[in-house]
Each structure stands twice: as structure tokens, then as C-alpha cells.
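To whoever is covering the structure queue this week,

Two jobs came back overnight. Logging them here so there's a record in the thread.

Job A:
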Amino acid sequence: MAAKQLLLLAFSILNTIASTYVQQVVEIRSYTLKPGTRDSFHQLVIDRSLPMLDRWKIRYLGYGPSLQEDSSYYLIRTYPSLGSRQASEDAFYNSPEWKQGPRESIVSKILYYTTVILPADSIRAWVARLPPITADPADSIILSSLNRQFIENFIHQDTIKHSAIIDPDFVCIESDGTIVPRAAYMHDWADAYNKSGYTSFSITDENIRIFGSTALVRSKTVYTKNINGKTVHGNSIYTDTYYRRDGKWKCIQAQITPVR
């Protein structure tokens, strides 16, 4: 994800929680990794680090390979205040769960890292001065937020929130070519994640293209699942089609393609 798009995504998420966190800070951590380790580091972040952050209720805004070189990586987290950040990270990094868990496998791939801590208001001010990345940058922000919400709805099996972004004319085209209408899709959504065997599920490589009142939102999923006691890593590419109906973007079609 380009830096401009990353800041826009951060801005969108921060706006949704601004009413709760009055003096919110954003921590941007930039890692320089040992040569040839970035792919395995990324997988460890997805499989081990992010689930821990979720359990410890540490909010992260973004993560992934940086654009400038193949040894760089970033992680962006947000905290209610500077003091709560220090307390939260002290507890997290001193916990037995971290020290006896993924710490060694993750730290062993890091040469060094730098940390920048900024007030959330600064990011909002910078984003306001960015030139648009599309004819209407607000639509890109909304669609990126909806894309993230789509995945969060799946992981948390939140049918109420999901129904709000799924158009009445929605269909899902499954990886085997089956076309599933909205009613059947929403019925299966309620327990789809639990039945899937997924142990982690996230997205990367977001791409948004807007054509008037229609938009294509494409991302790559990165997941692990447990199949017959074995851990399996995999990816898929999905393209969601959105249509602006009565001034609001609604998903009218989802299509999933597994990466073989």
C-alpha cells in the first residue's frame, strides 16, 4: 500500500474512534530485517503477532512490507494516550505469552527498528493537505473502510453490521463457480468463520478502482487454517463490486479466486 493510501486509511479509522480517544497517539514502527527474511517475518506477524495484539486489545492500523527496499517492514499501532501506550507495551513485551511464545522467532529476523510517536491530530492535518488520489478521495476512504469492515464482519461473524453493507441484489461467486444469492449467503455467514478452520485471516495488497457510481475493491487474503490437525497457509484474491445506491456504497457482488 502506498504511503498516501496508508495515511488515508489511518485517517479513516482514526475518525471513527476519535470520540472515544481524546488524546490519541499513533506509533509508527519501521523495521529493517535480515536479508531474505521478510516473507517469513510477514507470516509470523499474521500468524502470531496480530492475534496477540487482538487478545491484548492493542489496536493496529496497518502492517506489511514497505516500498523502499526488500528488507523494510512497518507496523502502525494506536493508543488512547502516550501514557497508556507505555503501560500497554511494557505489559505486552514483558508477558510470558510474548517471551515464551513468538518473541524469539520474530526478534531473530530484525536487524534494528525505529519508532515514531505522533498525536493523531497531526496525521489528520497532514491527510487534509494531501492531493487526491482519485477524482473523489472521500470515496476511496469510504471503500477502504468498508473493505476492512467486510473482513472484520467475517472474523467476528457479525451479521448485523454485515447486512448493512450488503446490497439487496447481492450475489457471491464462490471459488468453485457457485453463485450464492444474498439470503443463502447471509444465512451461512453467521457461523462461516468458525466452521472454516481458520486460525488467522487478514488482507493485504488493497486496490480500489472507481468508475462513477461503481467501484471494484480487490485484496489478497493471507490466512492459516487447521485441517485434520495440520496447519495450512494459503492465499486467495477477491474482488468486491460496490454500487453507490442512494448516496451510500453497497456491495453488490463478491468473487473469490484461490491462489494455487
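Job B:
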Amino acid sequence: MSGGALEALTAEIVACRRCPRLVEWRERAAREQVARFRGQEYWGRPVPGFGDPDARILVIGLAPAAHGGNRTGRIFTGDRSGDFLYASLHRCGLANQPTSVSADDGLRLSGVYVAAVNRCAPPGNRPTPQERDRCLPFLEHEIDTLDRLRAVVALGSYAWDGALRALRGLGHSVRPRPRFGHGAEAAVGPYTLLGAFHPSQQNTFTGKLTEPMLDAVFERAVRIAS
């Protein structure tokens, strides 16, 4: 697998300004910093994928958080969702450490790559369908470039839908359309799509998603990938 292809894609993602509403929002969030991060230099640009170029597992989220990935420049980094996600990846042997606080904190992923359907932080975590569709080619290119990929883990229903759309764009579709659920599983072309509740505070604080629940999905992904 060519790491150079992912590097070229990363440069294309970071330079993207296709969605005026999202450009305005991500840059405003970077200027009008929340109190706990005041004085920090925000990334304020689209956030590329991150991980092992030889990944056999792809993890897909919704979009960067305004004061998480939009601040740090790395997906699922610097927010509570990322804390929950990377701790699980560490327990499952897919990350060298359980925390992710900044882009230069030494985190390394093994056998897994993490991305999102949308690469800019959206207002209210709600991209429009048009904003989703403008961004989907990036996800398609990542899937196509990760040529050892076998399992795709979608964090939440939005990511599940985005994964199915991206796979369909690559010529892999399935009928009837599989429904999202935690632990849901569907064969889509050469890939197995797995569903998991998103590790948002709304889900983790209420117990809708627990550590063992998320670990079980990644353990299943590891078995599929091997």
C-alpha cells in the first residue's frame, strides 16, 4: 500500500473549501475559543484521516468536534469521544496508548485507520446532505487506497449511512439496505460493515454505550481482519 497516496489525499482534504457554511463555522470556532482552550492555536481546517497505512480495519465517525479535532488537527483527538474511542482501541491491541490529547502526543495505531464522513466541524453536529455528498469522495478514496482493508466500523447511524454510500460509490452495494444497530453486521462487497453506537458523552454518560460494548465490536473487527 502506498503511504504516498494517503499523504496526497491528506493534502487535498486539508486544502478543501467546498462548503462555505462549514468553512465559516470551523474558522469561527477557531477564533472564538471556549474558555478552557483559550490561547491555544486551533487547527481550524478540514481534518484528515489518521492511522496505519496498512490498516485492515477502518473506523468512521460523523465529523470532527469543534473544539476537538478542529482544535488539534487529528480526528477524535482532544475530546471525550476520542478518549473513549482510543481507550477501547488500546485495550484491543490496536493503539499503543489509551489517550489522545494532541497531534504530537505519540499515539500510534496498528492495523486500524480512523476517519469521518465529514471532515469539517459542522454546526450542531449536523452536516447537510449536500455537505455530506461533497465530502464523501474523500472517504471513497481512503477506502480504495487502504488495499488491505477488510472491516469497516461505523460509529453511529450517520457513519453507517455514509459508509454504505461510500461503498456504493466504489461499486459495492447490498439489498436490502442493512439497518444500523450496535453490533449490526453486513457484508458489502469485500468488506464487513460493523455498527457501534457513537462514543459521544450522550451515549457513554447514560450507559447506552459501555466500554465492554465498544470493545466487543472492535474484537469482532479484529477477528474479521485476521
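Note for Job B: DSSP finds eight helices and six strands in the chain.

Please reply-all if you pick these up so we don't duplicate work.
Q.
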